[in-house]
Design goal:
Mean pLDDT: 87
Number of helices: 14
Strand content: under 5%
Radius of gyration: 26 Å
Distance between the termini: 76 Å
Shape: elongated
Oligomer: single chain
Low-confidence stretches: 249-257
Largest sheet: none
Order of helices and strands: HHHHHHHHHHHHHH
């Protein structure tokens, strides 16, 4: 950082040397002081055999060409090699969260390892976002049981961070209620789809469905949403199963074959 301003161009040579400490020092100085000078050497640095140098090059590229840097970062996060995905995650810690949140969600959607999924989650915990709990819950609906548990813990953790940093207590309570209502309505839609599927394949009512219905009755928003869904057009068999499980309080339209 104390390198003379009129000699910054001389650092370019050091940014390409074989010594990682020297290369990283030059790269970081130029990134902070005059990042446009790095443009000619960045392509080579982005393919360096040293992951720390590649990560520093991505951070520098963000200063020079944000769209190109995010495309490169996306390729890392979606790479088939777990080591490359981890490298992409490390780069995200040095990138504005609002720039990488959607990329992280894409990577988390295909991640199969629960421990790596939790590592991605760290960024959501230290960068509170009002949108994040909604998007993370959506991921949990499509995840394996183990990953869904990780994601739902992460939803709770991000909510705590929002309450601690972004919203006052009154506004946070309203936010939590809105999130819970949204979750309950989604749960009602999933349960309704399951009832229709059970009617179609002949499974009908069993212990699992009875248990889900009993749990739904204890959540007023979910239960009311389920009864609203019962008014939608559906085949007669599905209508009959809805009436049996949810009850006949709602008027149910029938889709004639």
């Amino acid at each position: 950082r104390s390198w003379p301003e009129d000699r910054l161009e001389a650092l370019l040579g050091y940014a390409s040397v074989d010594s990682p400490p020297v290369c990283l020092a030059a790269l970081e100085t130029l990134r902070q002081r005059k990042h446009e000078l790095l443009l000619p050497v960045l392509p080579g640095l982005l393919t360096s055999a040293n992951p720390r140098i590649r990560g520093a090059a991505v951070r520098a590229l963000i200063e020079v060409d944000r769209e190109e840097a995010l495309a490169h970062l996306e390729a890392l996060l979606l790479d088939a090699d777990p080591a490359r995905r981890l490298e992409g995650l490390r780069c995200c810690f040095h990138t504005p969260f609002e720039d990488v949140m959607q990329l992280l969600l894409k990577a988390m959607a295909i991640e199969t390892d629960a421990r790596r999924l939790a590592a991605y989650g760290m960024l959501f915990e230290i960068n509170p976002s009002l949108e994040a709990p909604f998007r993370l819950y959506e991921l949990s609906e499509r995840a394996s049981a183990e990953n869904a548990e990780v994601l739902r813990r992460l939803v709770a953790a991000t909510c705590r961070a929002i309450g601690n940093t972004l919203l006052n207590p009154a506004d946070f309570q309203k936010y939590r209620e809105r999130l819970q209502e949204w979750i309950d309505r989604r749960a009602a839609a999933v349960l309704a789809q399951d009832i229709v599927a059970r009617a179609a394949d002949g499974r009908g009512t069993d212990h699992e469905l009875t248990e889900m219905i009993e749990l739904a009755r204890k959540r007023p928003v979910l239960w009311n949403a389920l009864q609203e869904l019962a008014t939608l057009p559906m085949p007669p068999a599905a209508r009959a199963l809805f009436l049996k499980t949810v009850g006949g309080g709602a008027s149910v339209s029938v889709q004639r074959p």
